[in-house]
Amino acid sequence: MVSGSFSRRLPARLTPRIVSSPRVSARRKLWVAPRPPSLGDLAAAFCLASLVLVVGCLTYVYVKGYLGSGSLVVGLTGDADACDVFDGRWVPDSSYPLYNSSECPFAERGFNCLANGRNDMDYLKWRWKPWRCDVPKFNVQDVLERLRGKRVVFVGDSMSRTQWESLICMLMTGVQDPNTVYEVNGKTISKTIRFLGVRFQTFNLSIEFFRSVFLVQQSLPPRHGPKRVRTTLKLDKMDDMSRNWFDSDVLIFNSGHWWTPSKLFDMGCYFQVGGALKLGMSIDSAFTIAVNTWASWVETMVDTNRTHVFFRTFEPSHWSGSNEKVCELTQHPLAEAKANDQTEFSEIIVEVVERMKVPVTVLNVTLMGAYRSDAHIGTWSHPSTVTDCSHWCLPGVPDAWNELVFSYLLVKGEFPHGGIKWDKISKPEKVVNRWADRSCAAVFLGAFLQLLLQLCDADRWSKFCVIPYHMAIRLITARMQFLGSPPLMIPMKSTRVPRRNQSTAKRRKDWIILTCVEHRSLLHHLPEAPATKAYSANTW
């Protein structure tokens, strides 16, 4: 049979005739005019897309969230994930210094440049400012409360002692009765004493310093050794005093300034591994072995769940001249970093820490000090006949090191204040925070589609889509709990859910809190509606 189609508006003789079989006609009609998708089809498609997004976000959190510890970069306020606090510049700040060395009984006279005759005070008015974030201002009362009952230990050379004195003077400004702060053995601060400990009696706080310039054991040479060998460094054994270090809450190391030919070979000190002398070993190789010995000791002896371990890199000096014995200070920080920084030592420290199995934070302060040719002791030493372009005046650069250490600890949520524990920022939470704004619109769309399904009474799609979607939401929110101000409440099940699904819903309303732009968090699941402003399905 032949079938044709005619236009009612045109004459039959002017209308083109289409001749085809019924089977061809049926196929062509199906292709030209397909059945329009129903509302349920569209809702199901968007709902499945939203489910894929949620599951993908969950997979990303679990897979990526635990890779790498980020121990080399300390993230503080601002763009924490992209901020290296050790990359920045010194900016003028009239609120500095944080203390007066002359009023601090634990500041060594040799580091008190003002008391030793320095007249200009410009070097005191500088604050370290990272490029991408800010270091919180040191709040002495807050730090003292959070350090109540703690033990802070510094281990290293005279640079470590400088940082130790700096921290004590910073904390002394928050103590009402200075007589409650004392050295535990009644000793006067001296560079030759191997142990110094200051106790803050009111806060049950101990700040201690152990002098260990090499970190490893220094001893007499083996028998029948060359006469030039007077002492040796046992690179595979830690200092005998290391047994007093690990039982602490904060443990800060440094080493490097004594690893020079003048303080080793010229003094008859050579390297030893096991029972064998290593007379031809270079200083860099020996330093690498020593740092690896230290790393093994930390991994086996230190409880890093309690103790926060730091290793500060080499502090630069500003000696000049052909023999590097000229010390000429500037009045302001340099515009470009320029110093004798012993970069190879810092690189060794970073490489060793990267391979460690426990969390250790590297305080990479080398660049910070390279700008400060104005902040060394110079000729304002004690006695004045000694010129010093290596050590720093107090107050000065070591204060910034302490600000970084304790800002890091407090921002990370350590040392709760007044019994209130800060929420620790875990790696998965950082990932979710970073992606929350990007995925919020899609998740909100999923919530809207759930309401749409319920309002339209799409029974078959509700059974297929609502339950898996809520399972994914429950799984994510069970892992991620964020605190925030009252957000927008959207009910995810209404009374229009089909009765056969009410057993799954447990005959109650579920709520999802969306905190997208204002609160910047993920989803918070509550079994009951809280007493905040809520929008029911009828509001839409």
TrEMBL record:
The cellular component terms of Gene Ontology attached to this UniProt record, alphabetical and capped at eight, are:
Golgi membrane
One GO MF annotation is: xylan O-acetyltransferase activity
Q: What is the designated name of this protein?
A: Trichome birefringence-like N-terminal domain-containing protein
Which residue ranges does the record assign to the Trichome birefringence-like N-terminal domain?
Answer: 82-134
Q: Where does this chain mainly localize?
A: Golgi
Q: Identify the keywords attached in UniProt to this record, alphabetized.
A: Golgi apparatus, Membrane, Signal-anchor, Transmembrane, Transmembrane helix
> Source species, please?
Musa troglodytarum
Cellular localization per UniProt? Golgi apparatus membrane
Question: To which protein family does this belong?
Answer: Belongs to the PC-esterase family. TBL subfamily.
Pfam families on file: PC-Esterase, PMR5N
Transmembrane recorded as keyword = yes
Q: Where is the Trichome birefringence-like C-terminal domain?
A: 135-407
- Entry-linked InterPro entries: TBL, TBL_C, TBL_N
Presence of the UniProt keyword Transmembrane helix in the record: yes
Q: Which domain of life is it from?
A: Eukaryota
Topology versus the membrane: Single-pass type II membrane protein
The cross-references to PANTHER family, in alphabetical order and at most eight, read: OS01G0880400 PROTEIN, PROTEIN TRICHOME BIREFRINGENCE-LIKE 9-RELATED
